[in-house]
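Before going further, learn to read the protein records used in this course. Taken together, the tokens spell out the fold as the letters spell out the chain. A record is reproduced here so that you can trace the correspondence yourselves:

***
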Amino acid sequence: MGTGPFAVPTFESILDSKHDVVVLVTRPTPPVRSRSKAPRNPMREVAEARGIEVLSPDDVNSDAARAQLVSLRPDLFVVCDYGQILSPATLSIPALGGINLHGSLLPKYRGAAPVHWAILNGDEETGITVIHMTPKLDGGPALTTRSTPIGADETTEQLEPRLALLGVEPVHEAIAMLEAWDRESPIGTPQDPALACRAPRLNKSDGAVDWSLSATQIYNKFRALKPWPGSFTHWHRSSGEPLRLLLDEIAVVESTGRDATQPGCVLVSDGSSLEVATGNGVLSLRMLQPAGKRVMAVDEFLRGYPIPVGDRLVDAH
């Protein structure tokens, strides 16, 4: 059971193993609006290329969907990046239940966006956990785990594929544990609920830069939100409407005492660099994209948009 790219390496590995994948269950393709393309479903693409039957029920817990799954007599559900929560009745269909590959060291970051939140919070380490599923979201006992450091400049776009590959071997180890299981004894390591924290899905509005945060906090959020929804701000111009700016590359710089001013205030704008005060520290804006334009290096941007020192960047109109 999977939809997104995080599940692909594990899916391909299981297809190449001794195990028989009888079906892929994936999210249905949403209706396509005019002049827009249907979003990619990487798991469906792999299944169709490999001749695997695909089911895409609107509700995997409906009577009809459960009847289809029962007819397949599965031993195990392998779940990753699927997008629907399995009910107790659905989870009880396979003889061995289900396992879920999750992109964090559970019980940290239960929910839809574990990789984003680990980076956003400035964590130096993360990993993957394969759990034996229970009806509680991401709450089952851990069967296998792997940890990995988070690079100081690593983005969600870079870390997610690394974690997806890191999870392949632990999934096979978890399957082997269940193959040898007597189906009665406790299995895995229970999670400590006191250590649990949530990682809810992010919204487009989360990309608005809050300049009152520290430079490091803004940079961590920038890394977490790349590529989606991205980080954006508005140049509050002395004349004309505020201009929306998407930040494509930024860096924390030594402040040397220049940050003792209003957050969002432009401190340096000299044709080759653009530095902005935050709640604590200074950020250098290296690559920007004005609304309706392409991404530009800061020197090119300043030739077309000469922001004066003292002007402010704000998080909204």
